[in-house]
């Protein structure tokens, strides 16, 4: 059996790690560089940073934080939020991140996935998606819809179809951010069913959840 990996996920707003519900009502809880160092020293396998308001505010990523983190930790880390162009992705990688996580920018411009894969390799490109259970509709046959801009804007795009498209375009990893789970959890049958449907579409699969399952999930974001 493959060992599961523990990956702390830090949401960052205005240069500080923040905690909220469904990306809203956030409170600051710490310094991202200090917290990254702490998790590194505690044995984390990898760290993920999301600049949670960059896409909604239409601004660039927190490159100063990326550079500072790269000087402090010696494990892979990925960065997402506000990445809209190939140059945005390049800047994050040159600042020291091993991977870029693209979300709203990829929904608006799916070619960003293939451009990033060609330029930097699929291993550097993570397709992140914010997913909400909406029920089965003609345009959302899986019952799970992709949202963008910190979960604020529904897209009408089916989560399973988008994960398959992302893999086809060259994404090396897939990260599912469950909007419902940020309310404190959702039905375990939904959780396992969603993982079964989406994990089959990606070579690697992240699921950002407070609880973990051993079913086809190789990493858990904490």
Q: What can you see in these coordinates?
A:
This protein is α/β, with parallel strands linked by helices. It has one domain (5-221): TIM Barrel (Alpha-Beta Barrel). Helix content is 31%, strand content 30%. It has helices at residues 32-41, 63-72, 86-95, 104-108, 111-120, 159-169, 188-199; strands spanning 5-7, 9-13, 16-21, 24-30, 47-51, 77-80, 99-102, 125-133, 144-148, 153-158, 173-178, 205-208, 219-221. Strands 1, 2, 3, 4, 5, 6, 7, 8, 9, 10, 11, 12 and 13 form a 13-stranded mixed β-sheet that branches. The longest helix has 12 residues, at 188-199. The two termini are 21 Å apart. The model is unreliable at 183-207 and 209-215 (pLDDT under 50).
Keywords, separated by commas or semicolons:
single chain, 222 residues, alpha/beta, TIM Barrel, 13-stranded mixed beta sheet, 13 strands, 31% helix, globular
Please give the structural blueprint:
Elements: E1 5-7, E2 9-13, E3 16-21, E4 24-30, H1 32-41, E5 47-51, H2 63-72, E6 77-80, H3 86-95, E7 99-102, H4 104-108, H5 111-120, E8 125-133, E9 144-148, E10 153-158, H6 159-169, E11 173-178, H7 188-199, E12 205-208, E13 219-221
Parallel strand pairs: 1-13, 2-5, 5-6, 6-7, 7-8, 8-11, 11-12, 12-13
Antiparallel strand pairs: 2-3, 3-4, 8-9, 9-10
